[in-house]
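Final report, Chapter 2: Outcomes

The project's central promise was a pipeline that accepts a single protein chain and returns its three-dimensional structure in a standardized token representation, suitable for archiving and comparison. That pipeline is now operational. To close this chapter, we reproduce one record exactly as it appears in the project archive, with the input sequence first and the structure output second.
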Amino acid sequence: MPRQNTITKTGSARTVVAKKVKKAPSKKKRGRKSGAQTKIASTLSGPRVTNFAAVGPDPTIDNLQKIESVVVLMLENRSFDHMLGYLKLEEHRADVDGLTPGLANSDGNVSYPIHHLGTTAFKKKQDPCHSGGCVAGQLSNHNAGFVKNYVATYPNDPERDLVMGYYNKTDLPVYDHLAAEFTLCDHWFSSVPGATWPNRLYALTGRADRSKDNKETPIYNIPSFVRHLDAQGVTWGWYSDNYFAGFYVPTLSLTDANYRWGGNYSFLDDFYKQAESGTLPSVCWIDPLFVDTRGVSGANDDHPPADVRHGQDLVLNVYHALTSNPDQWGKTLLVIVYDEHGGLYDHVSPPPPPNVEDDNPNFRSYGVRVPAFLVSPWVPQSYVATTLFDHTSLIKTILLRFCRRADGSIPNMGKRVMAANHLGGVLTERQARPAPPMEGYQSAISTLASWHGDRFAARFQPDHVQTSGDQEPNEFHTGLVRAAKRLASDQRKKSASSQRRNTTSSSRGRRKRK
């Protein structure tokens, strides 16, 4: 049977490896890697980083020292107004740049106003277009092209105004709790007016791969910020439960060839255990479940047509794990953000070119606004950060906190990263606030528990005998499966080649002995 990537236990985390490595010590030091861990990382990260760039004076950088663990959960394909615009429209929060009465889009004949959606899941084949060309049309005439583009994509869908729909606190009880207790960002823009992978590439590498659309087989080779963590001996972990075609595929492995076959990869269950025990690494990145697991669980990445209650379930579990240990909570920043808007309406136009610095002139523009929360004991309660952020703000924050030299310089990952605003300006609390008691989000727990109960009971109705519906993968899912199959094939070839070399070497050794 051909050998595939495996998961072996390394200390308190699991590490995906393509070949045998020395087992790391069972006790991990926080912040810096142990000798064995550094040795493993150096085989993956290549040459050490030598190109550093100066960062101008900024007193808010010091706020980052309050944080020892940065946790990033990047979800999929929802716009700010679609998920959080209700805070202004229905909850009357004047501090939020959200929805207001009268906002509408036209298909050229009929005007369709914003409206509350009656269901938390879309139907099959209701995945709005979000390619580079489609986003350009959606943003035309001051964000007036969303309905036109959706109708052009799905001319036979009777719900012509689907993209003008929004959710509220009844649908998103976890986000309603977070908005009341922590900080939301209402000017966090996706990095690219385009699809998923270009935006995820910006979040990990500070640039795209010359296109605003996804590759048909999304396997890239662009240096990620993780190389800089390894070069500085900073601990990190990548958490994912995604298996495609029997192959374990964290998003980092598809982005940076240095981590194609191995890295500090773990299951999400390991994140929960480490958070509870207070042993999280310095940087944690969480991939949601991108594809339905038949009979087990639904995709929780929020990519349409997924049910957003699955996403709420995931966010609540991550949040609850972090608040369960007061020591871990007191030194953690959780960033919840979406990669791009997924073709769904937002009323705020991105800053126009040339207001965006980028090494590539074709990428000097932001994409559509996306939902973003900063959850930490060091952020103000019920606060709205109006600072302009994009996904490279994540890289800037991580580099400033963990890779900054004594002279203040950080690894140079390009103009976009160097120009990005970091998150230290929001970590303004003088003392860490205790985590809200569980009673504060008990209503969210009860809502999700009731939803799970209803779904379970529905399986046993006379007209329903399946535990899950037929999976109809979208373009993003199809690309992930193609990539997994390609990597599995490449690994089989590598294994066969290695076996042939070993056989040849053994034969030569026998001949010499004769």
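Archive annotation: Confidence is low (pLDDT under 50) at residues 1-49.
This record, like all others produced under the grant, will remain available to the consortium after the project formally closes.
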